Amino acid sequence: MAELTIDDLKGFLMRAVGEDESIDLSGDILDTQLTDLGFDSLAVIATTSSLEQHFQIKLEDADASNIETPRDYLDIFNRELAQAA
């Protein structure tokens, strides 16, 4: 079964913002607001879209709009991946 890990997520998040050296994803970031980590709404949309393409799933709009922290990404995507298996 496919699973989204925090390390995988960090890679997707960083690709969404390119070479922005002001973004630091070290330490315990699971419950930190994405905006506090330096990600604007466009970066969140880009990350979500990339993850959907990678895992070949489509989130419901309500789920996608509720993503505010890295933990939200992990919970929502891993729930969807488990249901798809």
UniProtKB/TrEMBL annotation:
Top-level lineage group: Bacteria
Keywords from the UniProt entry: Phosphopantetheine, Phosphoprotein
PROSITE patterns linked: CARRIER, PHOSPHOPANTETHEINE
InterPro entries named in the record: ACP-like_sf, PP-bd_ACP, Ppantetheine_attach_site
The UniProt record lists the keyword Kinase: no
Matching Pfam families: PP-binding
Residue ranges annotated for the Carrier domain, each copy included: 4-81
Claim: Phosphoprotein is one of the keywords in the record: yes
Protein name, entry field: Acyl carrier protein
Organism: Streptomyces maoxianensis
